[in-house]
Design goal:
CATH class: Alpha Beta
Largest sheet: 7 strands, mixed
Order of helices and strands: HHEHEHEEHEHHHEE
Length: about 240
């Protein structure tokens, strides 16, 4: 099945989405952390921390963090969950280079490792991770169905899949405020940070096209995940999805 968001590209309609996403994140990698915090007004840190705390009941020892970017979710997972190993993967080597520096500065190289991996064709064996996490990355997938099949394959039986994604608020007045923010404030902030504007025009476009709420829960159910649930943050600006194998 094809989803609308898979056809929303950062730049054009000629190159594969995967290649465009890689290019976009490599170009903004050095500024990503500062700009991301500014765009979310700093609240993304709360979303991430609260999401990771949901994993404490599972006590995961081996974690796979997909679309890890600069490694913030992996670092928070290490701090909160104290697993044996976190494997952080991405297709943007520029983003992972920033993440490696942060991990090395904290002396966590023995716990958090980075690998170049395509989430639609993971090289890991079946049933090898207790948890798979993704923080604001599913919108960027070229093939959501195949990527979710891969997540299910590498999870151990009883393992948990947790991902955060930006979503479109449905209720007033936050719906109108969100529209104003994405149309006017986001481009202004990207200009202030001297960042390619197209990267932050792509953001609200991909959010609007992403399958959300119940629709996403049905996607997870289709591939055999169970005990599927969600939690909305900040009146629907972000949503946490959780499911078990």
């Amino acid at each position: 099945m094809s989803y609308k968001v898979e056809k929303v590209n950062p730049y054009n309609g000629e190159e594969r989405k995967k290649e465009q996403v890689k290019k976009m994140f490599n170009e903004i990698a050095a500024k990503y952390d500062r700009l991301n915090g500014a765009l979310s007004l700093g609240i993304d840190g709360y979303w991430r921390s609260d999401a990771i705390r949901e994993l404490r009941r599972y006590r995961p020892r081996q974690i796979l963090d997909i679309a890890t970017g600069t490694g913030d979710f992996a670092l928070l997972a290490e701090k909160i969950l104290h697993p044996e190993k976190i494997t952080a993967v991405d297709i943007s080597e520029g983003m992972m280079a920033v993440g490696k520096e942060k991990v090395a500065a904290r002396g966590l190289d023995h716990i958090i490792s980075f690998e170049y991996q395509d989430c639609a064709a993971l090289s890991f064996s079946d049933n090898c991770f207790d948890a798979v996490t993704i923080s604001f990355g599913v919108r960027n997938f070229e093939d959501i169905d195949q990527s979710f099949r891969e997540v299910l394959r590498v999870l151990k039986p009883g393992g948990v899949f947790l991902f955060l994604e930006l979503t479109t608020p449905e209720k007033s007045p936050i719906k109108e405020l969100y529209t104003t923010y994405t149309q006017y404030v986001m481009p202004l902030l990207s200009d202030l940070f001297h960042t390619e504007r197209r990267a932050y025009e792509y953001l609200p476009e991909s959010i609007a096209a992403f399958p959300q709420g119940r629709e996403m829960m049905l996607v997870l159910k289709k591939y055999g995940f169970r005990n599927i649930r969600l939690r909305r943050y900040t009146l629907g600006i972000a949503t946490l999805y959780m499911a078990e194998k």
